[in-house]
Amino acid sequence: MKKSIVTTERAPAAIGPYSQGVILGNFIFTSGQIPLDPVSGQIVPGGVGAQARQALENLKEVLNAAGASLNDVLKTTLFIRNMDDFALINKVYAMFFENEPPARSCVEAARLPKDVLIEIEAVAYIP
User: How many structural domains are present in the chain?
Assistant: First the structure.
């Protein structure tokens, strides 16, 4: 099988030597999505709730570019700066994964790229 690279202007461009996503077979593996506005390239204001929402919107766009959706996500990993924010992040996350949510891990990280409060990556099946 040959891998293919996913790119979309509807999510922030990679800020290093990596791809927004990689497809192999019927699976897409996304890079961690941080709360950058894809148009301005700036971190969205408004705290961890707004940042979680933007990271999930960016994730959704990468998945869409690969022919998948949030409904096709099998596993997510959340990296958060402060575990005390878990409840608020969970509320926002639940709005994006209302039915049959994917498996998930959540890890507190000392520091994330651009000093954001959250980063989210996923593995999804492309139907």
Answer: 1
